[in-house]
């Protein structure tokens, strides 16, 4: 069944080991080769999956997304990662987490190596304990008293600490790796071992043999005998082993490693010392960028600082090994930092030799921020002129847009489902409708930014105003809908917001031409950079972490996309809805002529839309009536698959397939039918199983309708109207950035108003709070003042 099995007896192997190699074994019956592993397993919260790994070494990875293909990986643990804050003893929790992640990757079939610090700290802890114990015994014998005098601990020499700590450190690693059925071997080296050709060959052979046997080598500088570091002693083209940073780089290149992960106590490489006011984390570092970086002091422990790490990383990169420097001490990320890096997530600083053709997403975020502020500073007529210009370009450049869309459609044929293909498609009529909607936005934007909402006279000559302002920078992520791009761009322009757009790759050609036209329209007033299209390889999850650049995320796509973004967003609000489970209640007093038209339009006009009908609630008295038969016949003609709710199924001898869940968004020609006794039961059902999106009632009884309208707690509630009306364009908003089911800021179709927030302006004349105290000479008036009338033309 398994291609090959290893036992943990190492007698034949030990004769080849160098004197400074200690092999630790784990007692278990057999060892499985990586190639024989097939099943998915899970330890703790880290998924364990096997991955096909094969790569010819020679050139480093160009992009983070390629790191998942790394087979041979070196993880370097800095002193600050391994040791406690008091620098005396090990951070056991962090070490256990790191060992778990290394074990997961090892059992995926990768070849893992650890370069670890910590022997000095562990030895310092042991020696301090021995010294205190020895001193206390001597004092007790000398004084004959139980009370001990204050004891001074002498300064401990680092080499002695290393000698005392190496065995204990390795024993600790051995105990931890045992929990995951993994063998480990200790190797101690010095710089001289790399200068001796025979020793280098022996080291190389030993490491390869350990990796072949699926053993994790744990490597450290032999600090018990290592000579003091000599500055500027690098040989030509070869890095000297002065510390574990240079050791890790040297080993990575010697062993033709795919990836070197350097864990420290900072998030990565900053353009100035971390903690300084203007310090920014560098996402990707390229050779030659050293001049743009100001290095600070080294960490609280360890031999080298960030400058040493960068030097070692660049040397490894030149040797064909990709490098990531990241934080291994932060409690929120240390439990998955290594696996996140290997999965290609945006963690730490990635060293790459390939510079992208365009700006990074961080640079695009900064451009959107500054461009948005310039946009907000324009006159309302100027912003409206930009939108009118974009509307004209959509019709004037129709042929180019449709040609680009045709390429997308041809590439998507056979890969996308029919509803998604329909969303992807553009047509002349769609472009004309887009242009009409954009002109509506331009007309309604005249007094959107800077509109006065409230005026208050606080005191004499002290007046307060509340005015509308842009939110800042919006990130809109959309799937398969290129027509979304000009709509959202126009709303962002009208509201003075900077905009980052991330479209699906299936619409790449269409999005590119539409973005170029948007920037052309923006150029007439010099704000071209306000709208940016993200074309880099950033995953959506990475974009959701840019909390210092993005103020609001608006997802437009499947319910799964929205849920993923809501889960991934850290510190950034998300406006949207995860599901569109829309209901229609057919009351006992519903009009026969209206019901079938409303149900057909709500379900069949565009079943993939988030405002399409998913559950039809029917009053019990309508069962076995001509009206009910008409509804069923219409659904059969439209080829709608019916799922019976539990109560509906109980009324039927031969019922359709019973619904698996009453909380289902089908997004297709499928519909759940359930029976209710009255309007209150319909409302209760909607509150229990709905998504607060759009719900409708069909009835001729005005009292029943108003009760439904007032008591259903959804973003949109309709009477005798199709659920498909829940749309920004149909509401007269011109367009929408999405439909929100949240209960704060904006709800329902979100148009121009939903992209604005407010700020307070206070105008005074040398007013101070102390003048309004008990003994002051001023009193608060708090008078409401008239607000300028809004231009509704």
UniProtKB/TrEMBL annotation:
Q: Give all residue intervals belonging to the Aldehyde dehydrogenase domain.
A: 361-623
Indicate what this protein is called per its UniProt record. Answer: Delta-1-pyrroline-5-carboxylate synthase
One molecular function GO term is: glutamate-5-semialdehyde dehydrogenase activity
Q: Can you state the subunit structure given in the record?
A: Can form homodimers/multimers.
Q: GO terms for biological process?
A: L-proline biosynthetic process
Q: Which GO terms describe its cellular component?
A: mitochondrial matrix
The protein's matches in InterPro entries, at most eight in alphabetical order, are given as: AceGlu_kinase-like_sf (IPR036393), Ald_DH/histidinol_DH (IPR016161), Ald_DH_C (IPR016163), Ald_DH_N (IPR016162), Aldehyde_DH_dom (IPR015590), Asp/Glu/Uridylate_kinase (IPR001048), G-glutamylP_reductase_CS (IPR020593), G5K_ProBA (IPR041744)
Entry keyword set: Amino-acid biosynthesis, ATP-binding, Kinase, Mitochondrion, Multifunctional enzyme, NADP, Nucleotide-binding, Oxidoreductase, Proline biosynthesis, Transferase
Q: Does the keyword Nucleus apply?
A: no
Q: What does this protein do?
A: Bifunctional enzyme that converts glutamate to glutamate 5-semialdehyde, an intermediate in the biosynthesis of proline, ornithine and arginine.
Kinase found in the keyword field: yes
Its family remark reads:
In the C-terminal section; belongs to the gamma-glutamyl phosphate reductase family. In the N-terminal section; belongs to the glutamate 5-kinase family.
Task: Say which species the protein is native to.
Answer: Daubentonia madagascariensis
- Compartment(s) where it occurs, according to its Swiss-Prot or TrEMBL record: Mitochondrion matrix
- EC number of this enzyme: 2.7.2.11, 1.2.1.41
Q: In which pathway does it act?
A: Amino-acid biosynthesis; L-proline biosynthesis; L-glutamate 5-semialdehyde from L-glutamate: step 2/2; Amino-acid biosynthesis; L-proline biosynthesis; L-glutamate 5-semialdehyde from L-glutamate: step 1/2
Q: Which CDD domains match?
A: AAK_P5CS_ProBA, ALDH_F18-19_ProA-GPR
**Main localization of the protein described in the UniProt heading:** mitochondrion
Could you tell me what reaction this enzyme catalyses? Answer: L-glutamate + ATP = L-glutamyl 5-phosphate + ADP; L-glutamate 5-semialdehyde + phosphate + NADP(+) = L-glutamyl 5-phosphate + NADPH + H(+)
């Amino acid at each position: 069944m398994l291609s090959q099995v290893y036992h943990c007896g190492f007698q034949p192997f030990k004769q080849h080991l160098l004197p400074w190699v200690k092999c630790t074994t784990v007692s278990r019956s057999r060892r499985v080769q990586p190639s024989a592993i097939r099943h998915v397993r899970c330890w703790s919260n880290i998924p364990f999956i096997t991955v096909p790994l094969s790569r010819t070494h020679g050139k480093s990875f160009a992009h983070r997304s390629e790191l998942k293909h790394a087979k041979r990986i070196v993880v370097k643990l800095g002193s600050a990662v391994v040791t406690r804050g008091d620098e005396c003893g090990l951070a056991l929790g962090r070490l256990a987490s790191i060992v778990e992640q290394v074990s997961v990757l090892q059992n995926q079939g990768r070849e893992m190596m650890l370069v670890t610090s910590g022997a000095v700290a562990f030895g310092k802890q042991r020696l301090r304990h021995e010294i205190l114990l020895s001193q206390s015994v001597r004092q007790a014998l000398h004084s004959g008293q139980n009370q001990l005098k204050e004891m001074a601990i002498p300064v401990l020499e680092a080499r002695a600490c290393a000698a005392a700590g190496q065995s204990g450190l390795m024993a600790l690693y051995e105990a931890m790796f045992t929990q995951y059925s993994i063998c480990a071997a200790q190797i101690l080296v010095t710089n001289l071992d790399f200068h001796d050709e025979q020793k280098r060959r022996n080291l190389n052979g030993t490491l390869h043999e350990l990796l072949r046997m699926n053993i994790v080598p744990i490597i450290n500088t032999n600090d018990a005998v290592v000579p003091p570091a000599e500055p500027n002693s690098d040989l030509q083209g070869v890095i000297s082993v002065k510390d574990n940073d240079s050791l890790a780089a040297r080993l990575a290149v010697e062993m033709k490693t795919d990836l070197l992960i350097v864990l420290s106590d900072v998030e990565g490489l900053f353009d100035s010392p971390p903690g300084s006011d203007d310090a920014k984390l560098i996402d990707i570092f390229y050779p030659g960028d050293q001049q743009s970086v100001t290095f600070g002091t080294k960490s609280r422990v360890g031999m080298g600082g960030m400058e040493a790490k960068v030097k070692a990383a660049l040397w490894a990169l030149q040797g064909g090994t990709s490098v990531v420097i990241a934080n291994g001490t932060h409690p929120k990320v240390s439990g998955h930092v290594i696996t996140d890096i290997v999965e290609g997530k945006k963690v730490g600083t990635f060293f790459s030799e390939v510079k992208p053709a365009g700006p990074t997403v961080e640079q695009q975020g900064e451009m959107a921020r500054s461009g948005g502020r310039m946009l907000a500073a324009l006159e309302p007529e100027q912003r409206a002129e930009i939108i009118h210009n974009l509307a004209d370009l959509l019709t004037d450049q129709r042929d180019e847009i449709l040609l680009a869309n045709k390429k997308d459609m041809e590439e998507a044929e056979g890969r996308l489902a029919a509803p998604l293909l329909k969303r992807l498609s553009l047509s002349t009529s769609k472009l004309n409708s887009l242009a009409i909607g954009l002109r509506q936005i331009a007309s309604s934007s005249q007094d959107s930014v800077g509109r006065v909402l409230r005026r208050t006279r606080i005191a004499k000559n002290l007046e307060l105003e509340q005015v509308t302002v842009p939110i800042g920078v919006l990130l809109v992520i959309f799937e398969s809908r290129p027509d979304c791009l000009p709509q959202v761009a126009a709303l962002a322009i009208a509201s003075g917001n900077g905009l980052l757009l991330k479209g699906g790759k299936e619409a790449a050609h269409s999005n590119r031409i539409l973005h170029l036209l948007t920037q052309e329209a923006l150029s007439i007033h010099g704000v071209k950079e306000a709208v940016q299209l993200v074309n880099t390889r950033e995953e959506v999850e990475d974009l959701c972490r840019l909390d210092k650049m993005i103020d609001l995320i608006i997802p437009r796509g499947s319910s799964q996309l929205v849920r993923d973004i809501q889960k991934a967003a850290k510190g950034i609000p998300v406006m949207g809805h995860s599901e569109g489970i829309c209901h229609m209640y057919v009351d006992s007093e519903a009009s026969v002529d209206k019901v079938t038209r409303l149900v057909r339009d709500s379900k069949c006009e565009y079943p993939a839309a988030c405002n399409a009908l998913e559950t039809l609630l029917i009053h019990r008295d309508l069962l076995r009536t001509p009206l009910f038969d008409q509804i069923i016949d219409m659904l059969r003609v439209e080829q709608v698959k019916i799922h019976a709710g539990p109560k509906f199924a109980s009324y039927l001898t031969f019922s359709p397939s019973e619904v698996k869940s009453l909380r289902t968004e089908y997004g297709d020609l499928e519909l759940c039918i359930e029976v209710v006794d009255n309007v209150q039961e319909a409302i209760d059902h909607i509150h229990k199983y709905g998504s607060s999106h759009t719900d409708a009632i069909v009835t001729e009884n005005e009292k029943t309708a108003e009760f439904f309208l007032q008591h259903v707690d959804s973003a949109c509630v309709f009477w005798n109207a199709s659920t498909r009306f829940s749309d920004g364009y149909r509401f007269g908003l011109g367009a929408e950035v999405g439909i929100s089911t949240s209960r704060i800021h904006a709800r329902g179709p979100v148009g121009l108003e939903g992209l604005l927030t407010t700020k307070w302006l206070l105008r005074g004349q040398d007013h101070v709070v102390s003048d309004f105290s008990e003994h002051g000479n001023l009193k608060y008036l708090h008078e409401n003042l008239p607000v300028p009338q809004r231009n509704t033309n």
